[in-house]
Amino acid sequence: MASLVFRATSPSSASCLFSRGSLTHPSCISQRTKCERMEPVNGKPCVPVLNDNILPNLLQSKRLEKATNTNSGNTRLKIFSGTANSALSQEIAWYMGLDLGKIHVKRFADGEIYVQLQESVRGCDVYLVQPTCPPANENLMELLVMIDACRRASAKNITAVIPYFGYARADRKTQGRESIAAKLVANLITEAGADRVLACDLHSGQSMGYFDIPVDHVYCQPVILDYLASKKICSNDLVVVSPDVGGVARARSFAKKLSDAPLAIVDKRRQGHNVAEVMNLIGDVKGKVAVMVDDMIDTAGTIAKGAAFLHEEGAREVYACCTHAVFSPPAVERLSSGLFQEVIITNTVPVTEKNYFPQLRVLSVASLLGETIWRVHDDCSVSSIFQ
């Protein structure tokens, strides 16, 4: 599990944003040119398991300190989980030394959602963990009903923790007579009674401005960077690739923190929704290990065509990195077709067993979100985590 202690980065050193006892630094093995793969067990991805044996000492001491403060009654913080990603909620609560709040969520026969808090939240700071992942409409409505239940139960502050913010792609009008659904969803969450939103890797930064309440934007990039830093890849063989022009800023930031690696851009022209056509490549990938970076993978059309194009241009190996693994069909077929050495994702969206494939690596963002929640609750800086 990665800790939240950051080191200053420089162009001459590989960027490992999290401190790990077993970390293998790319700059320390410049003679090695072959990427080392970790073989999965029974075809399932490597999913981090949280326990005291692998948790770094610093995080463990922080977790125990928080737990002590909680048990002594020094906090009025409560965490409740929706049904969208209960495993991540449990990991967050474990890191924070808390128990998840008791909540009853059920569906009536006609699909209506019923929520009842089974413990008092009067005067408490309440955090509701609920990504609006598929089925997006049901999970979004469940979040709204949970917020309303907390508001009517006299919670002091309600924070919607949304690891994956659905409808984020509809953040502007690209054609006539289109809706801006991201703004609509922001209004719904605000009007339901949320006082603050905590979201991970929004599709575009301007989405924060759609909310009329404070938004804490958590970047999951450090978790992926930490994992890549543990791979035995020579820094001179590395190139970071943006799968489209719109993701250049994200890829540039990623490359800067990864030994200041060179940047390449796949230029494509989209013919329709979820349909992409590769046009040309800006940059050099011949003989290099290409790391494609995006915020989400939906149908994997863009990133798969981009990977095929990179292989045609001479890339030795291709890694895919993203925060949100939506994995709408036929994403799994495209990602497991042999184009990628590894597909590295986080658990902001739960991955069902039917979507497992040998190249998949799932990294946990629980400690990152848990630390952010503590800092929000204690009125401390959140941005300092990522500096």
Summarize the topology.
Elements: H1 57-71, E1 77-81, H2 86-96, E2 103-107, E3 113-117, E4 125-129, H3 136-152, E5 157-162, H4 181-192, E6 196-200, E7 215-218, H5 221-229, E8 238-242, H6 248-257, E9 263-272, E10 275-282, E11 289-297, H7 301-312, E12 317-325, H8 331-335, E13 342-346, E14 360-363, H9 366-377
Helix pairs in contact: 2-9, 3-4
Account of the 3D structure:
- With 387 residues, this protein is α/β, with parallel strands linked by helices.
- It has 9 helices and 14 strands.
- The strands form 3 sheets. Strands 10-9-8-11-12-13-14 form a 7-stranded mixed β-sheet, sandwiched between helices. A 5-stranded parallel β-sheet has the order 1-4-5-6-7, sandwiched between helices.
- Helix 2 packs across helix 9 and helix 3 runs parallel beside helix 4.
In short:
The protein is an alpha/beta fold and 387 residues long.
